[in-house]
Amino acid sequence: MSRLHITLFLFLFSLLSLQAQQYGVCMEVVASGGGTGFQGNRYFAWTIGESFASTITDNGFLFTQGFHQPDPCGKDFVGAYDLADWGVAVFPNPTEGPIMVRFDSGKKGVLHATVFNLLGSLVSAQQILANPEGSLIDASNWPPGVYLLQLQDPLTRASSTLRVVRI
Fold it and tell me: Which of 17, 18, 22, 116 yields a CA-CA distance of 20 to 30 A from 39?
């Protein structure tokens, strides 16, 4: 009977200790190497030394699924990254107030910014971002949540969508 009590106590203690773990906002991957890159209008991130789950070949492309997770505290593009050569940076993300959008000053152009919530409702109408050193988008009145920031080059119609978190 005492072994049953000890086993039950250890089981409950392990459950409570798992619940007490502190998890940070940003995920990290421990690997021996890796990096990021661009090819055409696609953004790639990879790690070396991790296990992989499966490999799929389609239309001449080789896709290997693994356990690499993108950094939610950095740039997080949703879909195609058509504005790769613009060098877009959005910060702080997550934010409690305004967000700053910077891009390559060598582009000599402007970007149009539109913000949607996850239900697809318009949160901020098309705003012109003309200062490459930093244009502000006021997010201080947005309710806490996840938003989609759509950036578009009005000349080429190239666009990219980024995830922005309002805390």
Answer: 116
73-166: CATH class: mainly beta
Cβ neighbours of 30 (radius 10 Å): 7
Domain boundary assignment for the chain = 1-69, 73-166
Does the structure show a pLDDT above 80 at 137?
yes
Check residue 23 and give its pLDDT: 46
Q: What is the mean pLDDT of the chain?
A: 76
Please answer whether residues 121 and 109 qualify as being in contact, where contact means their C-beta atoms are separated by less than 8 angstroms: no
DSSP state of 95: B
Give the bridge partners for 127, in sequence order: 113
- Residue 2 pLDDT level (bands cut at 50, 70, 90): confident
Residue 46 class from Cβ within 10 Å (0-12 exposed, 13-18 middle, 19+ buried)?
A: middle
